[in-house]
């Protein structure tokens, strides 16, 4: 019964990047605190003793630092100069992998800058967050930040699965080449994001131009005229066709005649076969490199990361902190499995927007109707959570401590206190 109750409590917790598997913690994660908040510094140092601390983004020492895995910044009052400098850091090529804001001004600042911050994992810390919850949020953001590859689009590339890591390795190698590329993908948005990633990591400093086939219209004459303008814009850069198989023959012939053998434009196309048209045959004149983005069914282990990221994106845009529970995440992987990334994001947003949802970042615990103190309820919940986490970590106490956001000696004390130290996992 205790094990079943532990499972129920864990499944009611907000889903994040640490729930499905023990954190792949990097012992030297680069955590940086900006600001003169001694209390926050003390709280963080107990969990991240290796962290750095700087007075603000204008600090010369801070500017010399490599990008942080997690940047934590307090914003208590409006300061346009400070916010401009901070935004410059967050949108630079050396931006942190993830950001945690806190303070009275934090949510408004994040909302105002939501467009610039859309491809970086950003979270606003709720007031009165416990030390353990703070450490967990920080560690979850670090894990998510290592899985997200910013692309400058609404679709960052994210994943830690072997299939995804192999794809990103191929994309990095292809980025330095000028050869045409065909991207096989279930999702046009994800294909565009991958093309953006290669463009940003290549040698070109010229334009990235996307041909959105659906917007070219049905009239060949007007479509060809619009297409010629896009090709001219892409000179020296990248021309991306979002759905090659849906492109009318006349427009494709125009692209072939104007770009074949032209080294000034790198052609990238994406799509899946439809209406009997083979993208490989269409691209044959260009002898392209081939990249295939694995479908969601081939990277199920990445979906908790995607749920976490899109939840943070939703909160950034809505100003209201809402979270899916782990059980809701499991339901997304059930019979109505999302066909692609766009469908997954839509499903996450629909659940977060549901009228019944409570805007809270903490799990709800149903209290028994007994005359017991709050401390007793908290102790019972904590004991169950520790026991369940130890089981998930195979009895590895160091790993369990990291997952729970506790120091090893604190976990040892709690194991003794709750009589769990002698149990085998």
UniProtKB/TrEMBL annotation:
<dbReference type="InterPro" id="IPR002197">
    <property type="entry name" value="HTH_Fis"/>
</dbReference>
<dbReference type="InterPro" id="IPR002078">
    <property type="entry name" value="Sigma_54_int"/>
</dbReference>
<keyword id="KW-0547">Nucleotide-binding</keyword>
<dbReference type="InterPro" id="IPR009057">
    <property type="entry name" value="Homeodomain-like_sf"/>
</dbReference>
<dbReference type="InterPro" id="IPR027417">
    <property type="entry name" value="P-loop_NTPase"/>
</dbReference>
<dbReference type="GO" id="GO:0043565">
    <property type="term" value="F:sequence-specific DNA binding"/>
</dbReference>
<protein>
    <recommendedName>
        <fullName>Sigma-54 factor interaction domain-containing protein</fullName>
    </recommendedName>
</protein>
<keyword id="KW-0067">ATP-binding</keyword>
<dbReference type="Pfam" id="PF02954">
    <property type="entry name" value="HTH_8"/>
</dbReference>
<dbReference type="GO" id="GO:0006355">
    <property type="term" value="P:regulation of DNA-templated transcription"/>
</dbReference>
<feature type="domain" description="Sigma-54 factor interaction">
    <location>
        <begin position="157"/>
        <end position="353"/>
    </location>
</feature>
<dbReference type="GO" id="GO:0005524">
    <property type="term" value="F:ATP binding"/>
</dbReference>
């Amino acid at each position: 019964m205790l094990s079943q109750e532990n499972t129920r409590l864990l499944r009611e917790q907000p889903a994040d990047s640490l729930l499905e598997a023990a954190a792949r913690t990097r012992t030297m994660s680069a955590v940086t605190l900006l600001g003169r908040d001694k209390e926050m510094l003390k709280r963080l140092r107990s969990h991240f003793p290796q962290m750095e601390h700087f007075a603000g983004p204008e600090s010369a020492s801070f500017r010399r630092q490599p990008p942080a895995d997690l940047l934590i910044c307090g914003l208590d009052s409006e300061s346009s100069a400070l916010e401009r400098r901070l935004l410059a850091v967050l949108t630079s090529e050396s931006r942190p992998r993830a950001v945690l804001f806190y303070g009275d001004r934090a949510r408004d600042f994040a909302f105002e800058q939501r467009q610039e911050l859309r491809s970086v994992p950003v979270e606003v810390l709720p007031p009165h967050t416990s030390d353990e919850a703070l450490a967990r949020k920080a560690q979850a953001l670090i894990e998510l930040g290592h899985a997200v590859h910013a692309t400058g689009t609404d679709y960052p590339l994210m994943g830690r699965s072997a299939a995804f890591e192999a794809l990103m390795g191929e994309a990095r190698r292809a980025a330095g080449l000028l050869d045409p590329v065909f991207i096989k993908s279930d999702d046009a948005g994800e294909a565009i994001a991958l093309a953006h990633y290669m463009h940003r990591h290549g040698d070109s400093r010229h334009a990235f131009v996307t041909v959105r086939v659906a917007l070219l219209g049905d009239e060949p004459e007007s479509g060809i005229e619009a297409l010629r303008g896009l090709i001219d814009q892409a000179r020296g850069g990248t021309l991306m066709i979002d759905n090659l198989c849906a492109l009318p023959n006349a427009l494709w012939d125009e692209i072939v005649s104007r770009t074949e053998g032209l080294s000034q434009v790198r052609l990238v196309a994406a799509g899946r076969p439809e209406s009997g048209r083979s993208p490989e045959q269409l691209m044959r004149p260009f002898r392209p490199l081939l990249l295939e983005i694995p479908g969601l069914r081939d990277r199920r282990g990445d979906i908790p990361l995607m749920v976490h990221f899109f939840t943070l994106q939703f909160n950034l845009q809505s100003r209201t902190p809402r979270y899916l529970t782990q059980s809701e995440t499991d339901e997304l992987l059930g019979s109505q499995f999302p066909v692609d990334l766009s469908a997954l994001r839509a499903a996450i947003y629909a659940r977060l927007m549901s009228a019944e949802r409570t805007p809270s970042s903490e799990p709800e615990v149903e209290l028994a109707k007994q005359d017991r103190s709050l401390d007793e309820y908290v102790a019972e919940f904590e004991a169950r959570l520790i026991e369940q986490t130890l089981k998930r970590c195979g009895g590895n106490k160091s790993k369990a401590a990291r997952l729970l956001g506790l120091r090893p000696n604190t976990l040892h004390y709690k194991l003794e206190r709750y009589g769990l130290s002698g149990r085998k996992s």
